[in-house]
Amino acid sequence: MKHRLIWKLLLINILPVIAVVVFVIWLAIDHLAADYFMVLMDKYDVSPTETHRMFLSAVHRYLLWASLAGLGLALLLSYLLIRRVLRPLSQMAAITGEYASGKFGRRVRVTSADEVGQLGIAFNSMANSLERLEMLRKTMVADVAHELRTPLTNLRGYLEALSDGVIPPQEGTFRMLQTEILRLVHLVEDLGQLARADAARAFLDRREMNLHQAIEQMVELYRPRFEEKGLRLQIDLSPEAEVVVADRDKLLQAIRNLVENCWKYTPDGGGVRIAAERNGDRVRVVFENEGAGIAAEDLPYVFERFYRGDRSRSREAGGAGIGLSIVKELVEAHGGEVGVDSAPGRTAFRFTLPN
Fold this sequence. Notes:
The chain contains 9 helices and 7 strands; from the N terminus they run αααααβαββαββααββ.
C-alpha cells in the first residue's frame, strides 16, 4: 500500500511538472532560435538553414538529457521525502493490526509537526485511550464476577445446607438470604442505571428547573443518614444559580449519587458542604466532604465505571464503582463537565452545567 501510494504521488506531482517544463522550453527555444537566425540572415545576408538545424538538434539533445537527469533527481528526492512523510502512516497500518489482536503496547513515532505528525499524535492519543478502556473492561469483568460470586456463593451454601437439613430454617437465616438477594438486585439496578445514563444524550427532556429545590430534596432524603453518623452539613446556594435548564429526573439522579457519596465516605462526626454558584454562563455545583482523601494516582479514574481505588473494599463499604460513572454520563449528556479535587482531609466533587 505504501509503495503504491508513493508511486501515485510521484506520478501525479513529478511527471506532469517535468513534461510541462520541457515542452515550454522546447517551444521557446524553437521560436527564439528561428527569430534569432532570421535576424542574422537579414543583417549579414547569410543562409541560416543548416546552422539553424544543427543548433536546434544540439539544444534538443542536451535538453532531453538534462530533462532525464532532472527527472531522475526529482524522482529520487521526492521518493525519499514522500517515504519519510508516509512512514507514520505505514506504522499506523502495522500497529492497527496489532491493536485488532488486543496488543496495545506500540505507538507511532512522530518526527514532524505537520499534518501527518498531528495525525500521529492523535493516533497515539487514541491508542492510549484504547489501552485504558481495555484495562477498564478487563477490570469491569473481574469486578462484576467478584460482585456476583460472593452473594451467589452464600446463597448456594445456605440453600444446600437448608435442603440437607444441616441448619434449621430460622428467621435469621432467611433474613441473611434476603440481604444477599438484595445485593444482587442492587447490582443489577446499578447496571441498569448505567445503561440508561449511556443513552441519556438521546432522551433528554430539558426544561427550566429549580436547582436549589433539587439539592434540598436529595439532602432531606439523606438527612436521617447524616444525623445517624453525626455529620455536619453546610449548604451554600447562590441565588444566581437557582434556575437551570436540564432533565429534572436525570439531574436528580446525579445529585443523589453525589450526596450519597458524601454520606458514605465522610467519617463519623465529619463535615459535608454543598455549594452552587454561577460562573459566567455556567452553573457550578460542588459536593465537598471531609475524609481520608483520594490518592493522586486514582484521581484520573474515579469517574470510570467499576473503578475503585482500594481494591480490597467490599461492596457494602465502597459499592461497585458505578455511581460516579452515572454522574459523569448524565452531566456530560447535558453538555456539562465533571471533576474532582482531593487532598488529605478533604475531597470535592463538582459538576458544571451550561445555562
